């Protein structure tokens, strides 16, 4: 039995066996941790200190060689100010290609800026961005 694994961070689609799927999820979650940590300007050591582990363990989480426990993922989500579900968003088993947003420098700046906005103002910014995306140019 095999499945198709889509990695939205790299934009790659890979056919993998069920035994490899757990590892693929670990790599995906690790990449999400790394990108979000970077966007928030937090070092591996700072994150490790805040969740009570060594920075080498954060390195292992980020490359997917060690699986993040549910309790550690919860702590990481609190430090990085996102819901736990964030680490699994866009994780799909489908054969769909799409542009890798993290390769676009301006998109990276936009994402980094979003995470610098105070939590209570993010919803308004998100709604504004959605409204802009839905607008049709005047002909």
Summarize the entry for a quick read.
With 139 residues, this protein is mostly helical.
Question: Topology, pairings included?
Answer:
Blueprint lengths: L1 E6 L4 E6 H22 L4 H8 L3 H9 L6 H11 L24 H12 L2 H16 L5
Helix pairs in contact: 1-3, 2-3
Structure report:
With 139 residues, this protein is mainly α. The chain has two domains: 2-103, Orthogonal Bundle (434 Repressor (Amino-terminal Domain)), CATH 1.10.260.40; 105-139. It is built from six helices and two strands. A two-stranded antiparallel ribbon has the order 1-2. It starts with a strand and ends in a 5-residue tail after the last helix. This is Anaerobic benzoate catabolism transcriptional regulator. InterPro entries: Cro/C1-type_HTH, Lambda_DNA-bd_dom_sf. One of its GO terms (molecular function) is DNA binding.
Mean pLDDT: 79
**Strand order of the biggest β-sheet:** 1-2
CATH topology of the largest domain: 434 Repressor (Amino-terminal Domain)
Unreliable stretches, pLDDT < 50, 5 or more residues? 16-20, 94-99
Tally of distinct domains: 2
Distance between the termini: 51 Å
- Based on CA atoms alone, the radius of gyration comes out at 17 Å
Class inferred from helices and paired strands: mainly alpha
How many β strands by DSSP?
2
- The CATH class of the largest domain, by name, is Mainly Alpha
Tertiary shape:
elongated
Tell me the major beta sheet: 2 strands, antiparallel
Beta-strand fraction estimate: 5-15%
State the order of secondary-structure elements, H for helix, E for strand. EEHHHHHH
Roughly how much helix do the residues carry, as a percent range? 55-70%
